[in-house]
Write a structure and sequence with these properties.
Helix content: 25-40%
Oligomer: single chain
Largest sheet: 9 strands, antiparallel
Distance between the termini: 42 Å
Number of strands: 21
Bound molecules: zinc ion
Shape: globular
Length: 420
C-alpha cells in the first residue's frame, strides 16, 4: 500500500472527502473519528494525513483526530471485569459534542474489522454494544438532525479486506478493496469532483420526482416479499446532498446511490425478505424475513443468526419499527460487483433497503423543533438502533400508492420505472 499510484489516489480521495463529502468551509474546524465517537485505527493514518492536508489546503482552522487501537475493544470484552461494562470513555463523546456545539465538521472513517467481536460471549458483546449506543446517543441525535456537515467514508482495513476477499492474501485483498473503494467513490475518474457533482444532480432529480408525487405509501412485491409501508405527511425524499443546520451543503456518505425518506412508524404490513446477508455486531444474519403488523415487527425468522436478529429487534420499542426507506437500483455500481462488503456504507448502496430503528429528523419537514413525542406521532421513530437491511433485487417491483389510493410504478425488476 505504498505505491505512488496508491498515494495519488488517496490524495484525490481526500480532496473529494473535503470538497464534496464535508464541503469543509474556510475557518471551520474538523474532527475525525471512527464511527460517531470512537478512535480511528492507526492503520488508517495514511488516509487521515491526506485528509488533514486537504482540510488545511481548503482553509480549515484546526483538525483533530481521535485515535485508537481496535484490538483494545476486543481485549476489554475478553478481560475487563464484568461489572465494569457499564463504563464508557465519555471524554470521546464530550470531544465530539464540543465540536458539534461550535458548528464544526465531523468525518467518520469506517473499515475496521467487521468480526472484531467474533467468537466472544454474545451476551457480553450485546451489553457492550448497548452501553456504546446509549453513550453516543447525543452525537447520533445531532448527526441525524444534520446539526453540522458530516461525512462517513471507508478505508480498506486489513481484516475487513480479508473478510471481503477470503481467497486472497492480505496484501492482495487490501489492494482489491481499495480499488473497489476508489471506483465506487468515482476517484478513478479523470475529474472526481465534477463526476460527483453530476451524480449528485442525477440523484436529486429522482428525489424531486418522488417528492412531487407525495405518495401515501409504497408496495413491494418480490420472491417471498409482499409488503406495504406508509409514508407520513411531510415526508421528505433525500439524496446525496443535504443542507446542515450550520448552513453547509454536504454529502453524508461516500459512496452513495440511495434516495430515501421516512416510513410511518405505525404503518407497515406484510412480510419482507432480505436479499443480502446482514452483518451486525460482528455476526452474519442470513436468509431472514421480517413480518409487520400495524408498523410493528411481530416475527423474525433467519436461517442463520436468528437470535442476534431478535436481540437487535428487542433493543427497545423503536427497534420494533422502521426508521428509513431507501430506493437503490439493482444495477447500482456497488450491486454490480456481486459481492458483499460486510459494511453498511457499501452494502446499503447495493440495494433497496429499510432500516430498523431510529429515523432521521431531516426526512420529515419541519421536524427539527419537535419533541421526540411529537416527532413520533408525526410518523418518526426513535431508537438506540439504526440498522439497514437489504430487500431489493432484480426481481423486485415497487409501486407508489397515491393519496387517492391508485398505484404507479416506481421500480420494475429492480430498476427505476419513471423518467425525470
Ligand atoms: Zn440508507
Ligand atoms: Zn440507514
Amino acid at each position: 500500500m505504498t505505491s505512488k499510484k496508491h498515494q495519488e489516489s488517496l490524495k484525490k480521495y481526500a480532496e473529494a472527502i473535503i470538497k464534496i463529502g464535508l464541503n469543509l468551509q474556510p475557518g471551520q474546524r474538523l474532527i475525525i473519528t471512527y464511527g460517531p465517537t470512537r478512535g480511528v485505527p492507526h492503520q488508517f493514518a495514511p488516509l487521515v494525513r491526506e485528509v488533514v492536508k486537504s482540510a488545511y489546503a481548503n482553509g480549515a482552522r484546526f483538525v483533530d483526530v481521535i485515535w485508537s487501537d481496535e484490538e483494545l475493544l476486543r481485549l476489554r470484552v475478553q478481560h475487563a471485569p464484568h461489572d465494569s461494562l457499564e463504563e464508557y470513555p465519555t471524554w470521546q463523546v464530550s470531544a465530539v459534542m464540543g465540536m458539534i456545539e461550535r458548528g464544526d465538521a465531523q468525518l467518520s472513517i469506517s473499515g475496521a474489522d467487521p468480526d472484531l467481536y467474533g467468537g466472544l460471549d454474545a451476551e457480553t458483546v450485546a451489553k457492550v454494544q448497548q452501553v456504546y449506543l446509549k453513550n453516543v446517543a447525543p452525537v447520533n441525535l445531532n448527526i441525524s438532525s444534520n446539526a453540522i456537515n458530516w461525512c462517513v467514508v471507508a478505508a480498506a482495513g486489513e481484516a475487513w479486506a480479508r473478510k471481503v476477499f477470503p481467497d486472497l492474501s492480505a496484501t492482495k485483498a487490501q489492494t482489491k478493496l481499495w480499488k473497489a473503494i476508489f471506483e465506487t467513490t468515482r476517484i478513478d475518474q479523470p475529474d472526481p469532483i465534477s463526476a460527483w457533482q453530476k451524480h449528485i444532480h442525477t440523484l436529486r432529480d429522482r428525489a424531486k420526482y418522488l417528492q412531487a408525487r407525495q405518495y401515501s405509501g409504497l408496495h413491494y412485491k418480490g420472491p417471498g416479499t409482499d409488503f406495504t409501508l406508509g409514508l407520513p405527511n411531510g415526508h421528505k425524499w433525500i439524496s446525496a446532498q443535504s443542507l446542515a443546520q450550520n448552513g453547509v451543503a454536504f454529502t453524508a456518505n461516500m459512496p452513495t446511490e440511495e434516495v430515501f425518506t421516512l416510513p410511518d412508524r405505525n404503518r407497515a404490513e406484510g412480510v419482507v425478505v432480505s436479499t443480502f446477508p446482514l452483518s451486525y455486531v460482528g455476526a452474519l444474519i442470513e436468509d431472514f424475513s421480517v413480518a409487520f403488523e400495524n408498523g410493528r415487527i411481530t416475527r423474525v425468522t433467519a436461517r442463520k443468526g436468528e437470535a442476534i436478529l431478535q436481540k437487535l429487534v428487542d433493543t427497545d420499542e423503536g427497534s420494533h419499527r422502521l426508521g428509513e426507506v431507501a430506493l437503490v437500483p439493482a444495477s447500482s455500481p456497488i450491486a454490480r460487483r456481486g459481492y458483499l462488503f460486510y459494511n453498511t456504507l457499501f452494502d446499503e448502496n447495493a440495494s433497496c433497503h429499510i432500516a430498523i430503528g431510529r429515523a432521521y429528523r431531516f426526512t420529515l419537514t419541519g421536524s427539527e423543533e419537535l419533541t421526540e413525542e411529537e416527532f413520533n406521532s408525526a410518523g418518526g421513530n426513535s431508537s438506540l438502533a439504526h440498522v439497514d437491511f437489504m430487500i431489493g433485487s432484480p426481481e423486485m417491483d415497487i409501486d407508489g400508492i397515491t393519496q387517492e389510493g391508485t398505484r404507479e410504478p416506481v421500480m420494475r425488476k429492480g430498476e427505476w420505472a419513471f423518467e425525470t
